[in-house]
Amino acid sequence: MIVLGSTSEVAQAFVEKALQEGEKYEKIYLFTSSKETTERFARHIDVKFLQQAEVIELDLMKEIDYTRFENVSSNVLFCAVGYMGDGTEEGLYDHKNTEKIININYSKLVPVMNYFAQKFESRRSGTIIGLSSVAGDRGRQSNFIYGSAKAAFTAYLSGLRNYLFDKKVHVLTIKPGFMETKMTEGLPLNPKLTAKPKQAAACIYKAYKKQKNVAYVLPIWGIIMMIIRNIPEFIFKKLKL
User: Fold this and answer.
1) Whole-model pTM?
2) What local confidence, expressed as pLDDT, does residue 183 receive?
3) How many CB atoms lie within 10 A of CB 178?
4) Transmembrane ranges (predicted)?
Protein backbone atom coordinates (compact mmCIF):
# COMPACT_ATOMS: atom_id res chain seq x y z
CA MET A 1 0.00 0.00 0.00
CA ILE A 2 1.11 3.54 -0.76
CA VAL A 3 -0.08 6.13 1.76
CA LEU A 4 0.21 9.81 0.91
CA GLY A 5 -0.29 12.04 3.94
CA SER A 6 0.51 9.28 6.41
CA THR A 7 0.46 11.54 9.48
CA SER A 8 -3.30 11.81 8.99
CA GLU A 9 -5.24 10.07 11.76
CA VAL A 10 -7.68 8.78 9.15
CA ALA A 11 -4.87 7.37 6.99
CA GLN A 12 -3.33 5.58 9.95
CA ALA A 13 -6.72 4.26 11.07
CA PHE A 14 -7.35 2.95 7.53
CA VAL A 15 -4.00 1.16 7.47
CA GLU A 16 -4.80 -0.48 10.81
CA LYS A 17 -8.30 -1.40 9.67
CA ALA A 18 -6.98 -3.06 6.51
CA LEU A 19 -4.38 -5.02 8.49
CA GLN A 20 -6.99 -6.05 11.07
CA GLU A 21 -9.13 -7.36 8.21
CA GLY A 22 -6.27 -9.59 7.12
CA GLU A 23 -4.99 -7.61 4.14
CA LYS A 24 -1.42 -8.59 3.25
CA TYR A 25 1.15 -6.16 1.87
CA GLU A 26 4.74 -6.86 0.92
CA LYS A 27 5.47 -3.36 2.18
CA ILE A 28 3.55 -0.23 3.14
CA TYR A 29 5.10 2.97 1.84
CA LEU A 30 4.37 5.86 4.20
CA PHE A 31 4.89 9.20 2.45
CA THR A 32 5.16 12.08 4.88
CA SER A 33 6.42 15.59 5.50
CA SER A 34 6.97 14.64 9.16
CA LYS A 35 9.40 11.72 9.13
CA GLU A 36 9.83 11.38 12.91
CA THR A 37 6.07 11.17 13.58
CA THR A 38 5.55 8.67 10.78
CA GLU A 39 8.45 6.47 11.89
CA ARG A 40 6.63 6.00 15.21
CA PHE A 41 3.58 4.74 13.31
CA ALA A 42 5.78 2.45 11.19
CA ARG A 43 7.23 0.91 14.35
CA HIS A 44 3.70 0.53 15.74
CA ILE A 45 2.38 -1.52 12.81
CA ASP A 46 5.58 -3.54 12.76
CA VAL A 47 5.09 -4.54 16.40
CA LYS A 48 1.32 -4.97 16.28
CA PHE A 49 0.90 -6.58 12.85
CA LEU A 50 4.43 -7.65 11.84
CA GLN A 51 3.94 -5.38 8.85
CA GLN A 52 7.00 -3.98 7.13
CA ALA A 53 6.82 -0.29 6.28
CA GLU A 54 9.12 2.23 4.64
CA VAL A 55 8.93 5.93 5.50
CA ILE A 56 9.58 8.27 2.58
CA GLU A 57 9.86 12.04 2.97
CA LEU A 58 7.57 14.04 0.71
CA ASP A 59 7.12 17.78 1.11
CA LEU A 60 4.73 19.14 -1.50
CA MET A 61 6.02 22.67 -0.90
CA LYS A 62 9.46 21.67 -2.20
CA GLU A 63 10.68 20.42 -5.56
CA ILE A 64 10.06 16.69 -5.88
CA ASP A 65 12.65 14.21 -7.13
CA TYR A 66 10.52 11.45 -8.65
CA THR A 67 13.52 9.18 -9.20
CA ARG A 68 13.33 8.40 -5.45
CA PHE A 69 10.01 6.67 -6.06
CA GLU A 70 11.00 4.41 -8.96
CA ASN A 71 11.04 1.25 -6.84
CA VAL A 72 7.78 2.03 -5.03
CA SER A 73 5.15 -0.43 -6.19
CA SER A 74 1.72 -1.25 -4.79
CA ASN A 75 -1.82 -2.22 -5.68
CA VAL A 76 -3.52 0.29 -3.36
CA LEU A 77 -2.90 4.01 -3.03
CA PHE A 78 -4.52 5.89 -0.16
CA CYS A 79 -4.27 9.69 -0.34
CA ALA A 80 -5.15 11.63 2.80
CA VAL A 81 -3.17 14.76 1.99
CA GLY A 82 -4.96 17.88 3.19
CA TYR A 83 -4.32 21.37 4.49
CA MET A 84 -7.12 23.64 5.70
CA GLY A 85 -4.98 26.72 6.34
CA ASP A 86 -6.21 29.93 7.89
CA GLY A 87 -9.90 30.33 7.14
CA THR A 88 -10.24 33.76 8.73
CA GLU A 89 -10.60 37.00 6.77
CA GLU A 90 -6.92 37.69 7.41
CA GLY A 91 -6.03 34.30 5.96
CA LEU A 92 -8.26 34.89 2.94
CA TYR A 93 -6.17 37.86 1.84
CA ASP A 94 -2.83 36.34 2.81
CA HIS A 95 -1.43 35.17 -0.53
CA LYS A 96 1.04 32.74 1.08
CA ASN A 97 -1.80 31.06 2.98
CA THR A 98 -3.87 30.87 -0.21
CA GLU A 99 -1.00 29.42 -2.23
CA LYS A 100 -0.26 26.79 0.40
CA ILE A 101 -3.89 25.66 0.57
CA ILE A 102 -4.11 25.33 -3.22
CA ASN A 103 -0.68 23.73 -3.60
CA ILE A 104 -1.07 21.04 -0.95
CA ASN A 105 -4.69 20.16 -1.68
CA TYR A 106 -4.43 20.21 -5.46
CA SER A 107 -1.76 21.71 -7.67
CA LYS A 108 1.33 20.06 -6.16
CA LEU A 109 -0.56 16.90 -5.20
CA VAL A 110 -1.97 15.96 -8.61
CA PRO A 111 1.42 15.39 -10.31
CA VAL A 112 2.33 12.94 -7.50
CA MET A 113 -1.01 11.16 -7.92
CA ASN A 114 -0.46 10.99 -11.68
CA TYR A 115 3.00 9.50 -11.21
CA PHE A 116 1.56 6.54 -9.31
CA ALA A 117 -1.61 6.36 -11.43
CA GLN A 118 0.58 5.69 -14.46
CA LYS A 119 2.19 2.76 -12.63
CA PHE A 120 -1.26 1.35 -11.83
CA GLU A 121 -2.32 1.78 -15.45
CA SER A 122 0.76 -0.07 -16.73
CA ARG A 123 -0.09 -3.03 -14.45
CA ARG A 124 -3.80 -2.77 -15.32
CA SER A 125 -4.87 -3.29 -11.72
CA GLY A 126 -5.28 -1.54 -8.40
CA THR A 127 -7.34 0.93 -6.42
CA ILE A 128 -6.71 4.62 -5.82
CA ILE A 129 -8.52 6.13 -2.82
CA GLY A 130 -8.55 9.91 -2.53
CA LEU A 131 -9.88 11.90 0.41
CA SER A 132 -11.54 15.04 -0.87
CA SER A 133 -14.13 17.00 1.15
CA VAL A 134 -17.76 18.03 1.29
CA ALA A 135 -16.30 21.55 1.17
CA GLY A 136 -15.74 20.95 -2.53
CA ASP A 137 -19.43 20.32 -3.27
CA ARG A 138 -20.29 24.03 -3.26
CA GLY A 139 -18.29 27.13 -2.44
CA ARG A 140 -19.27 28.66 0.90
CA GLN A 141 -17.98 31.86 2.47
CA SER A 142 -16.57 30.08 5.51
CA ASN A 143 -13.90 28.11 3.62
CA PHE A 144 -14.13 28.74 -0.11
CA ILE A 145 -10.36 28.76 -0.80
CA TYR A 146 -10.01 25.32 0.78
CA GLY A 147 -13.32 24.28 -0.81
CA SER A 148 -12.20 25.37 -4.27
CA ALA A 149 -9.03 23.28 -4.01
CA LYS A 150 -11.04 20.28 -2.86
CA ALA A 151 -13.57 20.85 -5.68
CA ALA A 152 -10.67 20.70 -8.12
CA PHE A 153 -9.38 17.52 -6.48
CA THR A 154 -12.85 15.95 -6.65
CA ALA A 155 -13.04 16.78 -10.36
CA TYR A 156 -9.56 15.33 -10.88
CA LEU A 157 -10.53 12.05 -9.18
CA SER A 158 -13.71 11.88 -11.24
CA GLY A 159 -11.79 12.31 -14.48
CA LEU A 160 -9.11 9.86 -13.37
CA ARG A 161 -11.81 7.29 -12.55
CA ASN A 162 -13.29 7.77 -16.02
CA TYR A 163 -9.86 7.51 -17.69
CA LEU A 164 -8.68 4.44 -15.76
CA PHE A 165 -11.93 2.48 -15.86
CA ASP A 166 -11.09 0.46 -18.97
CA LYS A 167 -7.51 0.08 -17.70
CA LYS A 168 -8.89 -2.02 -14.81
CA VAL A 169 -7.91 0.55 -12.15
CA HIS A 170 -10.59 1.71 -9.73
CA VAL A 171 -10.71 5.22 -8.26
CA LEU A 172 -12.70 5.90 -5.09
CA THR A 173 -13.52 9.46 -3.98
CA ILE A 174 -14.16 9.85 -0.26
CA LYS A 175 -15.95 12.95 1.01
CA PRO A 176 -15.59 13.31 4.77
CA GLY A 177 -17.74 15.86 6.55
CA PHE A 178 -16.62 17.05 9.96
CA MET A 179 -13.74 14.95 11.25
CA GLU A 180 -12.31 14.80 14.74
CA THR A 181 -8.65 15.30 13.79
CA LYS A 182 -5.71 17.60 14.50
CA MET A 183 -6.75 19.73 11.52
CA THR A 184 -10.14 20.53 13.09
CA GLU A 185 -8.97 20.75 16.70
CA GLY A 186 -10.65 23.65 18.49
CA LEU A 187 -13.47 24.05 15.97
CA PRO A 188 -17.06 23.93 17.32
CA LEU A 189 -18.15 20.73 15.53
CA ASN A 190 -21.58 19.15 15.88
CA PRO A 191 -20.91 15.68 17.36
CA LYS A 192 -23.82 14.18 15.39
CA LEU A 193 -22.16 15.28 12.14
CA THR A 194 -18.59 14.46 13.15
CA ALA A 195 -16.79 11.17 12.55
CA LYS A 196 -13.87 9.82 14.54
CA PRO A 197 -10.86 8.47 12.58
CA LYS A 198 -11.63 4.80 13.32
CA GLN A 199 -15.24 5.29 12.32
CA ALA A 200 -14.15 6.97 9.09
CA ALA A 201 -11.63 4.21 8.37
CA ALA A 202 -14.33 1.54 8.72
CA CYS A 203 -16.61 3.40 6.29
CA ILE A 204 -13.78 3.93 3.79
CA TYR A 205 -12.68 0.30 3.97
CA LYS A 206 -16.26 -0.85 3.34
CA ALA A 207 -16.56 1.48 0.32
CA TYR A 208 -13.19 0.23 -0.96
CA LYS A 209 -14.22 -3.42 -0.74
CA LYS A 210 -17.55 -2.67 -2.44
CA GLN A 211 -15.72 -0.77 -5.20
CA LYS A 212 -17.87 2.31 -4.78
CA ASN A 213 -17.08 5.37 -6.86
CA VAL A 214 -17.99 8.13 -4.39
CA ALA A 215 -18.77 7.79 -0.71
CA TYR A 216 -19.55 10.16 2.15
CA VAL A 217 -18.07 9.03 5.45
CA LEU A 218 -21.37 9.74 7.23
CA PRO A 219 -24.41 9.23 4.95
CA ILE A 220 -26.12 12.29 6.46
CA TRP A 221 -23.56 14.48 4.67
CA GLY A 222 -24.81 13.25 1.31
CA ILE A 223 -28.26 14.57 2.18
CA ILE A 224 -26.92 17.84 3.63
CA MET A 225 -24.80 18.58 0.59
CA MET A 226 -27.58 17.67 -1.83
CA ILE A 227 -29.73 20.32 -0.15
CA ILE A 228 -26.91 22.88 -0.16
CA ARG A 229 -26.11 22.23 -3.84
CA ASN A 230 -29.74 22.81 -4.79
CA ILE A 231 -30.34 26.11 -2.98
CA PRO A 232 -30.94 28.74 -5.69
CA GLU A 233 -28.00 31.11 -6.06
CA PHE A 234 -30.06 34.24 -5.39
CA ILE A 235 -30.88 32.79 -1.95
CA PHE A 236 -27.57 31.01 -1.35
CA LYS A 237 -25.44 34.13 -1.74
CA LYS A 238 -27.27 35.75 1.18
CA LEU A 239 -26.64 32.85 3.55
CA LYS A 240 -23.80 32.63 6.05
CA LEU A 241 -22.60 29.03 5.68
Assistant:
1) 0.94
2) 67
3) 19
4) 214-231
